[in-house]
Design a protein that fits this description.
TIM Barrel; 2 domains; hydrolase activity, acting on carbon-nitrogen (but not peptide) bonds, in cyclic amidines
Length: 411
């Protein structure tokens, strides 16, 4: 870093996780240039965090922007995973680029103002929708780059091996700039062949992989072990993730220990999606329904890279959502009976370890790191997480990207 006291941003009086006392954060050319109390120097923009907790921008590793905000079109989807897939499938043929863009932008803006600055959007490709949703995502990625880094993961929601056109669409999207590739073996007539073809495409295009996997509570079968085997065979360790994996919530301790070891050895990350997994699983058991959410904190204890993410917003898969990753982490903690002693771990699942799963370089509040910062309406980590603190402002690469003034009580 050049030795000069001229900065683009000076954020004063910030409280950092695990830090002692208030700190100033200086930013130059989009990166953190200095951290310390009472920094001297001038800045084009100087802001006072007022003793509030400052975190790196949050990371949403799994969301479906292309089918968000569809409730007004399909309120009665019949319930359950199959009903949700069928309901959205019936709508996709009528999707236009502008329609997907507008709905995606609505959800994206909510997420930005809740502190999300990195996001992996899973986008469906099939003959019904063609490349229209992908085109909308590429526009969103460009138009909102001032506030968020949007990574586009294309995948075949409704199967792949039954129609060669699906694989051609995936390959075309990768050639036109899709960032990575996903899979959904449980909806395919030949799950193993889909996995084989998806891995082959990923290797050919040198992209990471993120699968929808094991989305039920039947422990008698699983695709997770095959994913681990194929990951090692392809040399793709550290470049593969799976979302849902709800079968992990239905296996015994010995089986969970074995799967944890397999995942850690293969370098396969796991994302829990609490809102969707709670809403769709266990419906056949009425009021005795199990939680149906993968215990990713236990996987993390065994060396697996994990995250907690949004998945769906205001659609038949999840008719809820405000874009808050802190709320999602808080929901996960409630489900798993995690108290304040693990609040920090849950915050990591929407920040530090989520960034590791997405292989985001230079993430975090450290000199030389990306200057992606959010200021929360709280001065303590436990209160911020337990109370689902509202982000007050954010800085993307050191530039102010959103403001949400704190609520004021009028007596």
């Amino acid at each position: 870093m050049p030795q000069t006291n001229s900065f683009d941003l000076l954020l004063r009086n910030a409280r950092l996780r695990g830090g002692q006392g208030l700190q100033d954060i200086a930013v130059r050319q989009g990166r953190i240039a200095a951290i310390g109390p009472d920094l001297t120097g001038t800045a084009a923009l100087e802001e006072d965090a007022g003793g509030c907790l400052v975190l790196p921008g949050l990371v949403d590793t799994h969301i479906h922007l292309d089918k968000s905000c569809l409730l007004c079109r399909c309120r009665d989807a019949g319930g359950g995973l199959k009903g949700a897939i069928a309901a959205v499938s019936g709508l996709k043929r009528a999707f236009t680029v502008e329609d997907v863009y507008q709905r995606g932008a609505r959800t994206l803006e909510r997420a930005i103002m809740q502190g999300t600055m990195h996001m992996r959007a899973h986008v469906e490709l099939d003959p019904l929708v063609g490349l229209r949703s992908f085109e909308a995502m590429t526009r969103l990625k460009r138009d909102y780059a001032f506030a968020i880094d949007l990574s586009i993961c294309v995948f075949p929601q409704e199967g792949m091996t039954h129609d060669p056109a699906v694989e051609r669409l995936l390959a075309q999207a990768l050639a036109e700039g899709a960032d990575l590739l996903g899979g959904c073996p449980y909806t395919d007539a030949d799950p193993s062949l889909q996995m084989e073809r998806i891995f082959a495409l990923a290797v050919a295009h040198d992209v990471d992989l993120d699968f929808h996997l094991d989305f039920d509570l039947d422990p008698s079968w699983s695709h997770l072990e095959e994913i681990c085997r194929r990951t090692v065979a392809a040399g793709w360790q550290g470049r593969v993730a799976v979302g849902h994996a709800t079968k992990l919530a239905a296996i015994d301790d010995a089986a969970l220990d074995r799967m944890t070891a397999l995942l850690a050895e293969a370098g396969v990350g796991v994302t829990a999606l609490p809102a969707t997994d709670l809403y769709l699983n266990g419906r056949d058991q009425g009021h005795r329904a199990p939680r149906g959410v993968a215990p990713v904190h236990l996987l993390a204890d065994g060396g697996v890279t994990v995250s907690v993410a949004t998945n769906n917003v205001l659609n038949p898969f999840t008719p809820f959502g405000d874009g808050s990753l802190i709320r999602m982490g808080n929901l996960y903690a409630n489900l798993m009976h995690l108290g304040p002693e693990r609040f920090g771990d849950c915050l990591d699942m929407v920040s530090t370890t989520a960034a590791r799963l997405m292989r985001i370089a230079d993430y975090g509040i450290a000199v030389g790191g990306q200057a992606d910062l959010i200021v929360l309406d709280a001065d303590d980590e436990a209160d911020a997480f337990g109370g689902i603190a509202t982000p007050l402002m954010g800085f993307k690469r050191g530039r102010k990207s959103f403001v949400r003034p704190a609520a004021t009580l009028v007596r």
